[in-house]
């Protein structure tokens, strides 16, 4: 759900200008704005020199003007926000919405409030992860009110209003707090997630994410479904079990035949045949992983 508050011109004009700035962006909020503009028939004028302002927003040249779509915090850096506008933003955020502002600096053209909804499979994915003993923390650049509203619905700890460097720092803190065989995995899809994906023990990119995230991550979920994270963990654990079984079986068999050959119980040829048989059995054991779905 998207609310539009136009301070200059009509709501359709505001959406069209915002869509012009956000065209081509892979950010979820940008996609939501472009889709809403298409839905209401708002025309996005031609734009050029589009740039992402990391962790803050985006800008582009539209109709000869440098327009900016950004967070309230970033907008406040570009121009002071009136008390009435700040009140509107707070009210929208209390409803769990993420607010972005369209500016022709220093002029504020309007507000767009987007209700963030968890992915349809998010709850199922988190349930599966808990069954696997995996603890989750939501790291988001959204405002604290929106982040808290979403996290409460999912039963997650949340850290909000994070810049890329903040996510990087938190991943570093979690890695330093690792105990035993614990590892930190980061799941992300945006350019702002790339540094944290690289910092984590395992970086997992969503299939529909940015090229930067996909190139930085250690693994990519091609189905673009978060339930794939638990599938990936199960497959990884299964693979490690098979590797351990294969090593134990192969070394154990070699040790047995080495001892029996030295004692004269078996000859050289039985040992060679046993070694060949061990290779075949190890291969067959590994093929069990092909049954994973």
TrEMBL record:
Chain segments annotated as transmembrane: 242-262
Entry GO CC: membrane
Major localization class: membrane
E.C. no: 3.6.3.3
GO MF terms, alphabetically ordered: ATP binding; ATP hydrolysis activity; cadmium ion transmembrane transporter activity
Keywords, comma-separated and alphabetical: Hydrolase, Membrane, Transmembrane, Transmembrane helix
Compartment(s) where it occurs, according to its Swiss-Prot or TrEMBL record: Membrane
Keyword presence, Hydrolase: yes
InterPro entries: ATPase_P-typ_cyto_dom_N, Cation_Transport_ATPase_IB, HAD-like_sf, HAD_sf, P_typ_ATPase
One matching Pfam family: Hydrolase
PANTHER family in the cross-refs: CADMIUM/ZINC-TRANSPORTING ATPASE HMA2-RELATED, CADMIUM_ZINC-TRANSPORTING ATPASE HMA4-RELATED
Family: Belongs to the cation transport ATPase (P-type) (TC 3.A.3) family. Type IB subfamily.
Name recorded for this polypeptide: Lead, cadmium, zinc and mercury-transporting ATPase
